[in-house]
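Translate structure to sequence.
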């Protein structure tokens, strides 16, 4: 399995949050893991993306020291290994982890240390995507994130992203940030077409995004769908999350397979394992049960993920080789 759209803070396990809070003397709403999950996971009747994003506050509270970031990343990557995954791109915003004095560089170094310690000696690999954040007064922080990504590119960092409240802060407002990314040759994906419509996706493409985070609302513009198909722009789709944030009304109406069948380069991802109470295997199971995904479609989605990954051609080939070997002679992956 491959997950290209996985948020660090939104995938921190309840027991990890508890452990980090105790080590730092931070009070939590509950010290019982099952009860704490209620504060970490979005409800089924979540009203919007903005309400969904509130679930990040508690994990961020305990991820403000170097050791907490290292340990949090270590436990997340260890969990992904235990799930039997091949590859993951884990994204997070370094600027959100500086409230106790860390620099963005220190945050990234701590995250990379945890990632590398957990992945050592295994076939599973992971890389980081650094998120710039939508907001009214964080221009300098975003520009610093771009420069930090450039400094660590090829040393564990794979790309940049733009995350946050899409409907409140339009994608088109971040042209300066991604102009710098292009100048520094840092590839990037952008959250677009989730809480905002097709124009958000068009803005991301104009700025040079090589992938689109979510893109679920592309279908509102048939010409845009054709452009995404023609250019084979990967879409990082997250079915369960998209239902929770009201980007789509229900899973049965999610366009992931209809886009795939039209020839778009669609991938399936979790977004936030804890906030959405999911795993990548669960996402694929839901697509089979709710949308009638076939074994061949599952195989194609996995190959798409390998093709879309921020990796070298040789690394992508290795992933695809494993996927194809697993598929040979089997009706199910």
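Result:
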């Amino acid at each position: 399995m491959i997950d290209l759209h996985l948020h660090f803070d939104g995938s921190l396990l309840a027991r990890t949050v508890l452990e980090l809070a105790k080590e730092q003397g931070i009070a939590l709403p509950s010290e019982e893991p099952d009860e704490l999950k209620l504060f970490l996971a979005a409800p089924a009747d979540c009203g919007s993306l903005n309400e969904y994003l509130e679930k990040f506050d508690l994990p961020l509270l305990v991820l403000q020291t170097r050791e907490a970031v290292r340990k949090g990343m270590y436990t997340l990557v260890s969990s992904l290994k235990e799930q039997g995954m091949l590859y993951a791109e884990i994204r997070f915003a370094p600027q959100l982890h500086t409230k106790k004095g860390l620099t963005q560089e220190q945050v990234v170094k701590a995250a990379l240390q945890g990632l590398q310690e957990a992945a050592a000696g295994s076939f599973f690999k992971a890389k980081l995507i650094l998120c710039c954040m939508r907001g009214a007064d964080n221009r300098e922080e975003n520009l610093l994130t771009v420069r930090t990504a450039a400094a660590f590119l090829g040393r564990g960092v794979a790309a940049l992203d733009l995350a946050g409240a899409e409907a409140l802060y339009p994608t088109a407002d971040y042209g300066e940030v991604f102009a710098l990314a292009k100048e520094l040759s840092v590839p990037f994906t952008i959250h677009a077409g989730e809480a905002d419509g097709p124009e958000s996706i068009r803005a991301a493409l104009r700025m040079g995004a090589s992938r689109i985070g979510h893109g679920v609302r592309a279908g509102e513009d048939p010409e845009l769908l054709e452009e995404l198909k023609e250019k084979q722009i990967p879409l990082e789709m997250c079915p369960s999350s998209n239902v929770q944030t009201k980007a789509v009304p229900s899973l049965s109406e999610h366009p992931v397979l209809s886009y795939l069948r039209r020839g778009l380069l669609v991938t399936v991802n979790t977004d936030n394992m804890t906030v959405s109470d999911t795993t990548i295997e669960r996402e694929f199971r839901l697509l089979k049960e709710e949308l009638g995904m076939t074994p061949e479609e599952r195989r194609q989605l996995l190959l798409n993920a390998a093709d879309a990954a921020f990796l070298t051609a040789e690394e992508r080939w290795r992933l695809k080789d494993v996927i194809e070997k697993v598929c040979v002679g089997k009706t199910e992956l």
